[in-house]
Structure formats: C-alpha cells, structure tokens
C-alpha cells in the first residue's frame, strides 16, 4: 500500500509542479500513477490534502537542516547568514519546490492563504528570533513577520531564476545568489542608509 501512496505522491508532485493545483485533476494523477480514483481518495481526502502533503514532504528538506544551524553558528548574525545560505542551497537544487511555490502565488485563493499561515522557517527558529529580540540583540519586530520577510527575499531570487537566466545566459546564477546574500546581510546588519543620511533624517 505504501508503494501505491508513494507512486501517487510522485505523479502528483510532477503534475502540480507543471500545472499548479487549479489545473491538475485527480483523474490525470490516477491515470499516470496507474491507480483507481478510489485509491487516491483512500490516501488523501481531497485534492488540497494531496497538494499539502506534497508540499509538506518537500519543505521537510528545508526544516531539517535549518533546525541544527543554531548549534553551529558563531553568533546571531552568523546564525541568520547560515539559515539563508541553507535555504538558498536547497532551493537552488530543488526546482520542483520552486515551481510549486510559483504556482501557489499564481493560483492564489485560499490555497495560498493556508500555505502562508506560517513561515518556511520551523517554529523553533521563530522562537529563537523572539529570544534574540527579548535579549536586545534584534530589534523588536513581529517574529513571524520577520521570518516571512526573509522567506520572500530568499524565494524571490529563485522564482525569477528562469527569467534571469533567459535574459542573461552567461550569468553565473549561483554567484548572483551569493552576492545577493552578502548584500542582504549587509542591509540587515547596517541598514541601507549611510550614517550621514541617518543623521540628516534625525535617526541618529
């Protein structure tokens, strides 16, 4: 029975990545997985249940490595850098996950709302950000909002990768992502305004 479930998930992953949730049918998945519709409904109550199971399994690839980063980081800044680097590495090597996330944005509706109920970062990391805020290391923002902001910044670079590589075929995209990470870390640590500008704004 597990082989059948795995076969359904593999076909569903391919179909969702190619066509999105709104343009994929259970009939197509059943045909390509060589199972009856009743078999799909036995394992998954609805199409959305199947979709979120696919997403959950793929996102686990991110959550696992992220959860051990805190023990290897030299300081809070290094912790954030390593988190973003791990996310970049995993997303770069997993175009299926990127396609699924792209369709999530395009499909919209309640599907996106449910998926965006939480950050890609696991709960433990949101809690760690909260602790850094309480300890005065990070500014006091909404930790979930901060996590989602970092999600979006990292994800966007991968969502636009096909367009960027088409426009600039000679581009070293991996190098581009690394430069983007350095810029992001500098902005997080120092802000985008110079000290002089901050004084002019009355922020210093």
Q: What characteristic shape results from the CA principal axes?
A: elongated
**Could you spell the SSE succession in H and E letters?**
HHHHHHHHHHHH
**Approximate strand percentage:** under 5%
Helices, by number, come to 12
Give the biggest sheet.
Answer: none
Structural class: mainly alpha
What's the gyration radius in Å?
A: 20 Å
How many β-strands, per DSSP?
0
Mean pLDDT: 85
End-to-end C-alpha gap: 64 Å
Q: How helical, in percent, are the residues?
A: over 70%
Uncertain segments: none
Descriptive notes:
With 204 residues, the protein is an all-alpha fold. It is built from twelve helices and no strands. Helix 5 (76-92) packs parallel to helix 9 (143-159). The model has no long low-confidence stretch (mean pLDDT 85).
Topology, element by element:
Layout: H1 2-19, H2 26-33, H3 37-43, H4 47-67, H5 76-92, H6 95-107, H7 109-115, H8 123-134, H9 143-159, H10 161-167, H11 173-190, H12 195-200
Helix pairs in contact: 1-2, 1-4, 1-6, 4-5, 5-9, 5-11
């Amino acid at each position: 029975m597990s082989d059948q479930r795995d076969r359904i998930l593999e076909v569903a992953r391919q179909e969702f990545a190619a066509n999105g949730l709104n343009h994929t049918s259970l009939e197509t998945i059943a045909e390509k997985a060589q199972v009856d519709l009743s078999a799909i409904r036995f394992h998954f109550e609805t199409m959305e249940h199947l979709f979120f199971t696919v997403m959950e399994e793929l996102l686990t690839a991110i959550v696992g490595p992220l959860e051990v980063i805190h023990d290897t980081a030299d300081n809070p800044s290094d912790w954030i850098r390593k988190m973003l680097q791990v996310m970049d590495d995993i997303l770069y090597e997993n175009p299926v996950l990127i396609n699924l996330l792209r369709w999530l944005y395009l499909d919209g509706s309640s599907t996106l709302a449910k998926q965006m109920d939480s950050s890609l970062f696991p709960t433990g990391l949101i809690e760690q950000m909260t602790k850094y805020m309480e300890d005065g290391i990070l500014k006091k923002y909404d930790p979930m909002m901060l996590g989602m902001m970092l999600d979006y910044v990292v994800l966007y670079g991968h969502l636009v990768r096909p367009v960027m590589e088409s426009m600039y075929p000679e581009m070293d995209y991996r190098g581009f992502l690394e430069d983007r990470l350095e810029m992001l870390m500098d902005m997080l640590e120092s802000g985008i305004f110079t000290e002089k500008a901050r004084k002019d704004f009355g922020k210093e």
